Request: fold
Amino acid sequence: MPNSSSDKMSQLLKEPLIVLVGFLGSGKTTLLRKIIPDLLQEGYEPQLILNDYQNASLDANWFREQFKNLMVNPMSGSCVCCSGLRDLQFALENRPEGRKKPITLIEANGTTDSYDLLSFLGLNLEKNKLQAPLQMTPVNGKDWKQRGEYNLLEENQVRTAGILHVTWTDSITPERLEEVKADLKKLNGRAEVWSAGDFKSLGRFLSGAGSSAPLSRQQDAVDEDLHKKLSHWSSCELDLPESVSKKSLRAFLQSLEIENLRLKGCVRLSDEFDLMYYFEKTLSGEVLIRPFPGQAAFSGKMIIIAPRIDADSIQEKINEYF
Reply:
């Protein structure tokens, strides 16, 4: 942290940086949908960098449709904390100029190693003229500590956060919520822990929110290859028919019983006036089908993320249900 008033002033003159790191399906994109309107209302001109396994343009198009003044930079096919670092640095070096009140937001993919990402950002703050990053981490209260071998990866994401936001609170009891909050405080006593209704303006967090020094791993995160072993999941993109029935789509999604499956996509529904719908299957197995606002760049596409994917068997199911 800055030690003098001149250092603090220098920090204030740099562009604020918010980094969203959270496990797959924890609610990072939903949290962004809360943050961005508040930032726009406060006069900020945000640039959003979206990192996803396969097709980041799906969410990028949604944000462009909803927020006309938002600059969106999708990064697909690489991991923002390792193989995608060069692309991330290019995006940071080529931020839009001429913004009166600039701010950059990065949404990392769901299995990002937050230590590596924040260390990289911290080492390049001066070069990129950025403030120390504020990490916000949504935590799915329903699935917290229910991820088996992936629990440690999520715990590491929690340890480096400045703000922890418990999500899916409508699916858990008040007792479970307090239990999750207590766990989070044990892992990271410095962070603020929020849940539904606690969301506040980010203005007071945007000056010197993080640390510009490289981070060292916690003693109990003993395996330095954790990210390589646990977080490099497989991903693939498969085609669906451009238009399907809602019933057949739901039946197809429910038929996929792959462990730790995360799936999303866009398709037109023939029994809903051929309108575009966004569909998703969460890690807990819940199927969500919602209207897609605005115009999608494609229809009949599905992105699958899982530790192991047999694309051929999934294609067989697509042929079976459609």
